[in-house]
Amino acid sequence: MKKFFMMAIAVAAMTFASCGNKTEKPVEEAIDSVAVLAEEANAAAEDAISQLSATLEQKDASALQTALEAIKAKVAEFIAVNPGIAKEYISKVQNFLKENAEAVKAVVGTNATISGLVDGIAALPTESVEALTGATDALKALGIDASNFVKDAASDAVDAAADAVEGAKDAAAGAVDAAGKAVDNAKDAASNAVEGAKDAAGKAVDNAADATKKALGI
């Protein structure tokens, strides 16, 4: 009978382990997706800095404007997907522009459009995600409306968290049900084994009694 209960415990443990893996998978996938996005942002920042550097060396105002417009588009793209990634991207670009401020001024000259792009990118706060997403005026100055992006991102995060919680609840409930069934099955098997042993013992006793009677001629 102990063997049956040990089997039931083992089945329950395997069931909980299986459910745990199911709940961890979405979390791992989410972490992987953020890591991929971070790599993409780093690559984009390096590419943007490379383009800026080339335009400054060539002293090409038109190419500089094109590079800054591309940066502005990337800022909008990253904010829409993940403001935290956008913050890191902007910070890298800002550092380059700050370090090369004199070279930038020399190329910009009196071009108000390019100057506005440079100042707009430099004005974006990067000390925190909250500061960036809350800087609606600075974003609008670059033609970026972040209000919908932030709302959508927050809504998606809430939905994802709710789905994860529901998934965990379902997994836990399934594990409890499976464990209960395993224990019930073990009990039934043990009960059947006991009844079978009783029947076998009874038959053995009856057979022994019959044999004894025959031996005594009864």
Describe the structure.
Helices cover about 90% and strands about 0% of the residues. The chain is mostly helical. Helix 1 packs parallel to helix 3 (about 85-100) and helix 2 runs antiparallel to helix 3. Residues about 1-15 and about 150-155 have low confidence and may be disordered.
Strand content: under 5%
Task: Give the % helix.
Answer: over 70%
- The oligomerization state is single chain
Overall pLDDT level: 76
Task: Name its key features.
disordered N terminus, 218 residues, rod-shaped, mainly alpha, single chain
Tell me briefly what this model is.
By secondary structure, the protein is mainly alpha-helical.
Topology:
Blueprint: H1 2-58, H2 61-81, H3 83-99, H4 101-108, H5 112-122, H6 129-134, H7 136-141, H8 146-216
